Amino acid sequence: MLRRGCRPHLPNCTRSLPDFPATCDRQAPLRALALQAQAVLRARSLDAEPLLELLPGAWLARTGSTRAPAPALYRPAVAAVLQGAKQVWVGDAVLEYRAGDALLTRQPVPARGMVARGNHQTHFLGLVVELDTVLLRQLLSQLGNPPTGQAPHPAPFSVVALDSPVLSCLLRLLELALDTPDAQRLLWPALQRELLFRLLQGEAGPALLAMALPSPLARRMAGAIRTLQRSFRQPLDAAALASRAGMGSALFYRHFRAATGLSPLQYQKQLRLIEARRLLQGGGTSISATAFAVGYESPSQFSREFSRLFGHAPREALPPIAR
Q: What is the C-alpha R_g of the chain?
């Protein structure tokens, strides 16, 4: 909950989310998916858990109410909405997606997500499946007809509509989550391959193709992102990053922002603050020690920037017993 007078910074381009129903050919599969997801939650006896791991690399998300945008590091994955709707902010852009759609994340990027439609009677339900680029490349090498279509914008996210074959795979994923450990161990790898194949054949195909077989420019940007992820605690040397990417600082800045929605400094800052929240939530550390651990030289600056991003002071991220 946001403290009075302390709100996270949001872009000015947030739009209202129209109430478009799923097309008729997807309504029945989506109802079946929602019912199966609820059965999984009942069987696991974890109705209160917001994120439940079903299988290696696959999670079921559940929320009973709309919430303030929660910053997090989004990793390469396909996040399908089974029920409700969600919005994701990255930089100054906002993406909206609802039941029958999926958010495709092609590279790691800090962003803020918010459930835009969900309540205690009709929970938001989503399925998140990690994207394995090695497996994607293996499948592409075996396809006689690789995906065609317009190359996607370099931004890290895209929203795609899910067709019936993909929805069928997701239903079997939920069914497998209630099967025996032996069945899960033997059948999940094959279902993963089928899911990726179906995604490649659908609207997500061009984006997945660009992710598995990136252009030379995309590879250079991916290298810069990996460097920032490894060294976000160190002072930012944007000129060195640009040099390693083989371009001038101004050109590097433009391409980095196009690829992530953030400047290199914003990317680093959000990585630091997201890691700081994780450390604080784990307990056993002080606010000052956490600030230094993630690369800040000033605990007061850390507290200001933490409050601006998360909408509350660092102390509120500590376990109740440590406050």
A: 20
Q: What are phi and psi of 286, to 5 degrees?
A: -100, 170
Strands 58-63, 70-74: pairing kind: unpaired
**What count of other Cβ atoms lies within 10 Å of the Cβ of residue 23?**
10
Q: Which helix (H) or strand (E) element contains residue 110?
A: strand 109-117
In angstroms, how far is CA 247 from the centroid of its own chain? Answer: 29
Domains, the chain: 24-212 (2.60.120.280), 216-322 (1.10.10.60)
Range 210-219 burial, b when 16+ CB lie within 10 A, else e:
bbbebeeebe
- Judge if pTM exceeds 0.90: no
Q: b/e per residue, 60-93, with b = 16+ CB within 10 A?
A: bbbbbebbebebeebebbbbbbbbbbbbbbbbee
The count of other CB atoms within 10 Å of the CB of residue 247 is 18
**Number of residues written out for the chain:** 323
Cα distances from 219 to residues 53, 79, 112, 249, 311, in angstroms, run 31, 24, 25, 17, 35
Is there a contact between 221 and 255 (Cβ–Cβ < 8 Å)? yes
pLDDT digits over 204-248, tens only?
Answer: 998 999 899 888 999 999 999 999 999 999 999 999 999 999 999
Cα distance between residue 201 and residue 250, in whole Å? 38
Dihedral sign for Cα 64, 15, 106, 192, please.
positive
